[in-house]
Amino acid sequence: MLISQNFRTAFRGLTANKLRSALTILGIVIGVAAVVALMAIGNGATSSITNRITSNGTNLISVSAARFRPNAGTPSQFSVVTYDDYLALKAGLSNLSGIAPAYQSSYDVKHGNQNLRVQVVGATNDYFTVHPSTTVALGRNLNTSDNSQLNRVAVIGSQTSSDLFQGLSPINKLIKINGVNFTVVGVLKEQDSSGFENANDIVIIPLETGYVKLFGANAIRDGKRVLSSITLSANSADAVDGVMSQTDAIMRSAHKLLPTDTADYSVSSQTQILSTLSSVTTTLTIFLGAIAGISLLVGGIGIMNIMLVSVTERTREIGLRKAVGARKDHILFQFLIETITLSLIGGVIGILLGIGIAAMFTALGLITAVVSIPSIIMSFFFALAIGLFFGLYPAFRAANLHPMEALRYE
Amino acid sequence: MIQIDQLTKVFTMGENEIHALDNVSFSIDKGEMVAIMGPSGSGKSTLMSIVGCLDVPTSGSYVLDGSQVEHMTDTQLADVRNKKIGFVFQQFNLLSRTSALENVLLPLGYTGMSGRASREKALKALEMVGLQDRIDHHPSELSGGQQQRVAIARALVNDPGILLADEPTGALDSKTGAEIIGLFQTLHKDFGQTVILVTHDPFIARHTERIIRLADGQIVADAPNPTPLKAGTPRPEGED
Hints:
The structure holds 2 protein chains of 2 kinds. By secondary structure, chain A is of the alpha+beta class.
């Protein structure tokens, strides 16, 4: 019996019951589509997060407050990073291309009758040096005199601008941040915002102005000015490790820690964050794929169920085929090829559907899904394996039917 | 052609043993036309399935065309069925979604023959049964008699030693049934085909040259029928 003949027989058997065949492959279609689409979405999330982080420069080091235990067994405390730490780091570190202190908190921001809750960042003009992707599209940047003269000026994100000003130019307009008047001097260029927070919904004001006019007592602890973070930019990728250890030394002495004390601050580099994040998203992608894989398995059970029904229905046909000389392996292959055909058709439709779903996610702007060739190949062969595995039992049942009993079956 | 010696077939149903065939011996020569006749439950179906190599006996010996059949493996039996036996069934057992030609081609596919040679053989077989004009028709487009002719062509396509027909007229009206019987007689007379007709109907059996009667798993009579009925002879009154 030729293979092509077998496929023709299988195809004829399947087209005879079109609705049933369609419903049977639905399980495989959904399973494969889910695997392909979810993997694509997972991959897309990974690469967009990676891109966003690397677009900020990979040489970034961030110093921020951390939860710590002063002594074993005591409750953990939350420390702060202060403006004095910034001054100490600025004075002590070498190989830097920039160092940017920042204090951020969310406030109500008003213009006219528009009222938003927005992250307000107190920063120096170095903020724009260490975040090269944050640039001004309209108006001007903050400058050093804004900080020294305590100017009440603000640079706002593109989203904030369109929300507050409805498309009108916000330059030189007044906004009220927590009731305090600020003049908008610049609007940021729109940024890729598929991270954890919206980079376009932000208000940047001079740090000094913030301490004096806006942040109030929240930004003072033990008489010292508090920072949310200090962002350092090493002047080369090779310098990152050296800068990190220097930072560590300066911070320990600034916080008067003994060599045995645990650090009450954290120093992390962009590359560390990157590798942590990508391992998280990779795990997530695998997890999503595995869940989708379970639906493939369920689809396979559906195929087996229908094939068992089909074997029972076609008992007489099997009897006749045996009577005219079909051997066990002929019958076995006939039914196996039928299940494999089913699962392959389901697999191909599923792959197309999965690519379609991924394209839809991209088109809707939810996430830039990245369909990977390995995920397509993997789900195709997984579908094939499912067909083979779940087809074997019904095919063996058919092959082992007794010819005489099969012929007499009513 | 067929030598059967002390053939016994026992079925076990729960605790009961049923002797469907009990020490049956007979032989059939090449070119004979024989009826195996008996009421239902007489064991004729069991005998047919063993003669047709669909089943193996519990004991006894069966030599078909010079080879011992009773100890063959499933694969060998499939090969024997494919090459030496042509089955014709009461319900035709055609594959409904395939054309007459493809139905006739079916056994050749299992022989491993394909392409032009098998197509020629199938066409020749369809011509023998007078259906050369209907080769592309599906079974649903054919009358009962034509369907049975397709089934006979399928049985003949591999030039089998034996044509084994199980109640071949059972699903047909008497006129069409007579045509089918006539076809068997022609195949026997003109082509020397060995034909075994299995039937419960004495009238059908009388169309053959020898009648083997079975009852309760044993042969009760085995006699030549010197004056076989011509196909188309009206059924005598009072006989069904």
